[in-house]
Amino acid sequence: MKKYNDTALSPVERAEALCDELSTEQQAEQLRYDAPAIPQAGLPAYNWWNEGLHGVARAGTATVFPQAIGLAAAFDSDLIRRTAEIISAEARAKYNASQKQGDGDIYKGLTLWSPNINIFRDPRWGRGHETYGEDPYLTARLGVEFVKGLQGEGKHLRTAACAKHFAVHSGPEAIRHEFDAKASPKDMEETYLPAFKALVEEAKVEGVMGAYNRVNGEPACASEFLMGKLREWGFDGYFVSDCWAINDFHAHHKITETPEESAAMALKAGCDINCGSTYLKMMDALEKGLVTPEDIHRSCVRALRTRIRLGQLDKTEYDDIPYSVIACDEHKAVALEAAHKSAVLLKNNGILPLSREKTGTIAVIGPNADSRSALIGNYNGTPDRYITFLEGIQDSFGGRVIYAEGSHLFLDRSQGLAQAGDRLAEAVAAAENSDVIIACVGLDATLEGEEGDTGNQFASGDKNDLYLPLSQQLLLQKLRETGKPMIVVLAAGSSVNIDCDCDALLDMWYPGQYGGRALADIVFGDVSPSGKLPVTFYKDADKLPDFCDYSMAGRTYRYCNDDNVLYPFGFGLTYADIVCTDLSYNDGTVKLTVTNQSNTASEDVVQLYIKGYGEDDIPNHSLCGFARIRLAAHESRDIEIAIPCSAFETVNKCGVRSITGKRFTLYAGICQPDELSQKLSRTRCVKAEIIL
Asked: Which domain holds residue 660?
């Protein structure tokens, strides 16, 4: 038996044994994302590139969950872990099936390049909907559970998760290949690094992906500072470049002059796998003395160690996961649950929930009403069934449903030979012949997303402002003028100011394949909405700091003031009236009573915030705990929530984290403790003073 086949040895010992049987050139070839076969070990060619952000992506049929920002809005650690378990099971099933067919193509492997745990610091960033929002604590907690769900707890990894994009990366997309993101030591330690640290230390994430941009002058995929942090945290996996990011070293950043120099710089810094083509020059770099055989060997061992952890040399406990689990009813039921929990009710004058019995005709109007694209976001798989917003209302409502497109998503007309506003007359007629309007507006991944992936070439996937496209603004204006009651349903992955008076506003995000059914369940009161905003909704982008400024000053709920806030982080209404009382803290545990004062059963999210008063404390307060609970009508329950010691820590200007203060205020409620949140939520947070 070959040593690398000895399962009694550790994965690193087996990887070293296998690597020792390869020539240096063969080792170098294993550092490509499309690694060739290793026949002597029985290893077929392997493509490292696969995606699993909210379902197995780009590989055909899969269960499609709400986009990551929607999953974050659920504030539900258990849900996101179950979601990841399903994603990894479906990825294994696809892998098992494709391997039997000898198909090792892209998007069919076990190394899932998810989650995206960058901080959504600016609402103009097109890729923000791939993240868990603007708060480092929420991002870390959800990211840890997602990684644990993907990787499993077996002898082998079920799939290998990857934390990306390390670390200071959140736009602008148009200049990401040459951009230098400058962040202070305080912002690095306080905001940009905590989630990555948690995923490495707590979740043992198997992969980390670098970003395109530079970070304080260093290319992120070869940053001595960032690589040093991984060593400090005890990272024990593989590091992969973002795709063609190493090419940027010489082509755009001008840090190096040749591909050989770029390959050498990345490899020696600790980048093991190259998503791109620059490592094709690795042997040339070796001949020029820019790298050593030992450099190549070190990264090859790490790459093979991951594949061994995945069981690619062995029979595994996952080999028998059948193809039938893909898009099965049980998985799709969780997708529906996630869509229910992620929906955020931002406004309701009492119109919701609608009574089926008292409503005669509903007009469902808007470019996102019957749009499949509005359900699935980006980095998505293909559902075996979609239920659009229109279809969900039609299926659930017993009365007449009138549909009108109303407008193009962003152009001024829907038909090329027509005049501008060619769908408005139909929309007004539909509205006038209805009892209530459900206006389905917003964006989709053709307007916000990654550079090169969207049709939004005017901003490379980013947004120029926070408003709806003009075509939709005009549509809402015309609908409002009819005087009919109007519920606005927003499908988007970021902060949007609809700038229109309406009777209710429901943010569905990109809710996944069953978004329409979830919408109907909420509109008709079968389910109470319970999601909370994982980002701040602002009034005007022009009042935000410059998009290229990575300082946290004036950004996110922790640093901004209320002047430009439309809807705060953590805000979201339910159909119930839930309050928190009797707050106490003792030795890391918070106790409080949560009471449903209404006749409606509902879930809600209890949120804990802490405020310190030292010189280096953030100006506002910060999230330090949360718990999703369900209460029956008039039910009261005592709950406990653990908060970490880090909640009391302060980061100084040098980036040093420590507990320096003695006095803190702890808040508990179903929203933030700021005045706007409490006014909109029609509730007050309870608080307790803590003296350490």
From this structure: 578-691
Q: Does 471 have pLDDT greater than 90? A: yes
Helix (H) or strand (E) holding 24: helix 24-29
Residue finishing a domain among 535, 567, 592: 535
Whether 325 and 503 have beta carbons less than 8 Å apart is answered as no
Same domain for 305 and 359? no
pLDDT of 382 > 90? The answer is yes
**pLDDT, mean over the chain:** 97
Q: Which pLDDT value is given to residue 455? A: 75
Task: Identify the CA nearest to 536 among candidates 509, 491, 571, 573.
Answer: 571
State pTM to two decimals.
0.98
320 counts as catalytic = no
CB 448 within 8 A of CB 440: no
pLDDT of residue 452: 86
In this structure, what CATH number is given to the domain that contains residue 652? 2.60.40.10
Distance, C-alpha 322 to centroid of its chain: 28
> Given this model, what pLDDT does residue 456 score?
76
pLDDT on residue 220 = 98
pLDDT single digits (tens) 27-78: 999 999 999 999 999 999 999 999 999 999 999 999 999 999 999 999 999 9
> CB count, 10 Å around CB of 537?
21
CATH assignment of the domain containing 487: 3.40.50.1700
Whether 347 and 261 map to the same domain: the answer is no
What pLDDT shows up at residue 561? 85
- Compute the distance between CA of residue 97 and CA of residue 103 in angstroms, rounded to an integer: 9
Contacts with 590 (C-beta within 8 Å, 6 or more apart), sequence order: 583, 584, 608, 625, 640, 641, 642, 643, 666, 668
In a domain, 39, yes or no: yes
How far from 245 is each of 35, 188, 210, 450, CA to CA, in Å? 18, 21, 8, 14
Same domain? For 368 and 233 the reply is no
Catalytic residue among 76, 122, 187, 242: 242
632 and 521 in a common domain: no
Q: Scanning the structure block, which residue is given the tokens 């000898």?
A: 102
Tokens, residue 352: 């919701």
Number of domains in the chain: 3
Edge-to-edge strand ranges of the sheet holding 636-642: 578-586, 589-596, 636-642
CB 642 within 8 A of CB 630: no
Tell me if 540 is assigned to some domain.
no
Q: Are residue 320 and residue 351 in the same domain, yes or no?
A: no
Assigned domain for 542 exists: no
Look-up of token digits 């082509």 = 251
